[in-house]
């Protein structure tokens, strides 16, 4: 029995080693590293541009005269920043999912096309800008609602929001919105993967992803937490 287990683990180790070292070029996707760096640079660039735009809008006004339309400008600026960051993340996930899906579902790894990462960046840019924009719009709306709700909780209006009833209602709304956003983010993330691998629209991908989420919500929750911890350890 012990010998059989040893042989089984030995075969598993040998197959894993062959997969990593012999087919490492297909598994690693060297361009993916630079693509991830470019993704981070784009996000940082949008943040810097947003802050510069914020200070430029502030420089227009003065202490004595603060036009009301500048508040609207700040709001539009914040909404655009959240939407762009969510959109860039969706674009990144669709293209990466397509590249790794091509490698994973290819029986013969040598048949995987060269420059797979660049190929799926082009595919995502040409065909999937709309689905990623729509998915990021949904996440952006939930994020803005959370920010507005947090602002209402901290500011209060004429002292009426300090009562126990209003505080309880705001806490319930905050919890419900947090759960709703978590579910939407999970379903949208799986929809991005489905879009990258199958090329469908966002509605069809979200429908399939939500069905998958209902059947495997416990596994998805565990995998999500493991993914978060691994990301923290890596970065």
UniProtKB/TrEMBL annotation:
<feature type="transmembrane region" description="Helical">
    <location>
        <begin position="69"/>
        <end position="92"/>
    </location>
</feature>
<feature type="transmembrane region" description="Helical">
    <location>
        <begin position="32"/>
        <end position="57"/>
    </location>
</feature>
<dbReference type="Pfam" id="PF04515">
    <property type="entry name" value="Choline_transpo"/>
</dbReference>
<protein>
    <recommendedName>
        <fullName>Choline transporter-like protein</fullName>
    </recommendedName>
</protein>
<keyword id="KW-0812">Transmembrane</keyword>
<comment type="similarity">
    <text>Belongs to the CTL (choline transporter-like) family.</text>
</comment>
<dbReference type="GO" id="GO:0005886">
    <property type="term" value="C:plasma membrane"/>
</dbReference>
<feature type="transmembrane region" description="Helical">
    <location>
        <begin position="133"/>
        <end position="152"/>
    </location>
</feature>
<dbReference type="InterPro" id="IPR007603">
    <property type="entry name" value="Choline_transptr-like"/>
</dbReference>
<keyword id="KW-0472">Membrane</keyword>
<dbReference type="GO" id="GO:0022857">
    <property type="term" value="F:transmembrane transporter activity"/>
</dbReference>
<comment type="function">
    <text>Choline transporter.</text>
</comment>
<keyword id="KW-0325">Glycoprotein</keyword>
<keyword id="KW-1133">Transmembrane helix</keyword>
